[in-house]
Design brief:
The protein is α+β, with helices and mostly antiparallel strands. It has a single domain, classed as Roll (Chitinase A, domain 3). It is built from 3 helices and 4 strands; from the N terminus they run βααβαββ. The chain has helices at about 15-25, 30-35, 60-65, and strands at about 1-10, 50-55, 75-80, 80-94. The protein has a 4-stranded antiparallel beta sheet with strand order 2-1-4-3.
Amino acid sequence: MKSAIVRHILVKDKDLCIQLKQKLKNGTDFAKIAKQHSTCPSGKKGGELGEVKKGQLVGPIDKAVFSLAERELHGPIKSQFGWHLLEIKFRMDF
């Protein structure tokens, strides 16, 4: 069973998502941005989704979590909920 430790930021607007990604690349704290901007309930926890299992997240996000590089910032990624920035802390395979 594959699982991953992930945090993310969800916003409604692609342009805002791009702006936030640039702030993160410039060194702004991920948790701070998530708390200020994310519309996901995980935003209150700094964007922490904790451990997620393959198939647990919406399609485009699940695919990204289990295929993109670990310890990098990814996005904007579109889902039916809006635009996501993702950080895959690490993956495990049990």
